[in-house]
Amino acid sequence: CIDILKKLSRTVKFTYDLYLVTNGKHGKKVNNVWNGMIGEVVYQRAVMAVGSLTINEERSEVVDFSVPFVETGISVMVSRSNGTVSPSAFLEPFSASVWVMMFVMLLIVSAIAVFVFEYFSPVGYNRNLAKGKAPHGPSFTIGKAIWLLWGLVFNNSVPVQNPKGTTSKIMVSVWAFFAVIFLASYTANLAAFMIQEEFVDQVTGLSDKKFQRPHDYSPPFRFGTVPNGSTERNIRNNYPYMHQYMTKFNQKGVEDALVSLKTGKLDAFIYDAAVLNYKAGRDEGCKLVTIGSGYIFATTGYGIALQKGSPWKRQIDLALLQFVGDGEMEELETLWLTGICHNEKNEVMSSQLDIDNM
């Protein structure tokens, strides 16, 4: 915000004296009296207020806001926690259809085909049986064919009986080539699934069941925000039961909330999206994440608060639009809001391989 103020002063041609409000608040109406930065502008102690001021209807009634210079809203932050590996994790690399296809190919198509070709081969184990004569020496049964193909799939050095017929040998070679691809794909995807040891609570929005019916979970889902802000006001107006429940988990400030998330005292923290993305990007150890890669609910923006009817509003609006058009705002967002955790790939994305992949 200071960088934006400096750019505005050079573009619009004004000087300024900068000071911090005494209570350090953005501004809320308490007993019909505005406090914080909004109060400074309303009672004409300041010409403008620059900061992470969320534009909302209540504030817009008493001050004029510039065009938004940062898109924001409400987002949810959670902490990564150690997850558990499912007993069926070894099946997860492939979809059910792939497993069914593999066993059908093994038991019905390939094994039977290898057995039939070996049975009728003039040089195979079963050449005497095919001619109606008594067998001499070992025979090649369908069970041995299944055991051979099964051993090839899992690259296991089990004792097997290889066919002698040329056609059946070619079929076994083709199956061995498939087995190499199958096993390599399985191993790689299984490793990706196993890397996902960390668990992240997933919520779909403020109307999610975890927020609306937290007592349905054991232990109850714990979430809160910082009171006396636009986030709390939005929740209070739209989700009264949710607001009533979360008051006992509300935090004194953002830093307190981050500590509560990391220590397990809080399951989710609801707050301004831009602030949460900034904190998540600079979190030590990258344990804090915003759900849905920073998905925003109740989208709004940050604006500069000016006195009602201020002559500066038009010039500031034009300057901010120019900054956006020239890409200067994007450069500032990249500089200040993108941290190391956003640049690194902290989440391992893996999905089941389907028949199309095979």
TrEMBL record:
Family annotation (Pfam families): Lig_chan, Lig_chan-Glu_bd
Alphabetical keyword list: Calcium, Cell membrane, Cell projection, Cytoplasmic vesicle, Disulfide bond, Glycoprotein, Ion channel, Ion transport, Ligand-gated ion channel, Magnesium, Membrane, Metal-binding, Phosphoprotein, Postsynaptic cell membrane, Receptor, Signal, Synapse, Transmembrane, Transmembrane helix, Transport, Zinc
Chief subcellular location: other
Residue span, Ionotropic glutamate receptor L-glutamate and glycine-binding domain: 1-43
Reaction catalysed by this enzyme: K(+)(in) = K(+)(out); Na(+)(in) = Na(+)(out); Ca(2+)(in) = Ca(2+)(out)
Residue ranges of every copy of the Ionotropic glutamate receptor C-terminal domain listed in the record: 1-339
Positions bound to L-glutamate: 54, 59, 230-231, 272
Subcellular location(s) of the protein: Cell projection, Dendritic spine; Cytoplasmic vesicle membrane; Postsynaptic cell membrane
Site annotation Interaction with the cone snail toxin Con-ikot-ikot: residues: 236
SUPFAM superfamilies: Periplasmic binding protein-like II
GO annotation, cellular component aspect: cytoplasmic vesicle membrane; dendritic spine; postsynaptic membrane
Domain of life: Eukaryota
Disulfide topology: 286-341
Single biological process term from Gene Ontology: calcium ion transmembrane import into cytosol
Site feature (Crucial to convey clamshell closure to channel opening) residues: 203
Molecular function per GO: metal ion binding; monoatomic cation channel activity; NMDA glutamate receptor activity
Family: Belongs to the glutamate-gated ion channel (TC 1.A.10.1) family. NR2A/GRIN2A subfamily.
Name assigned to this protein: Glutamate receptor
Organism the protein comes from: Macaca mulatta
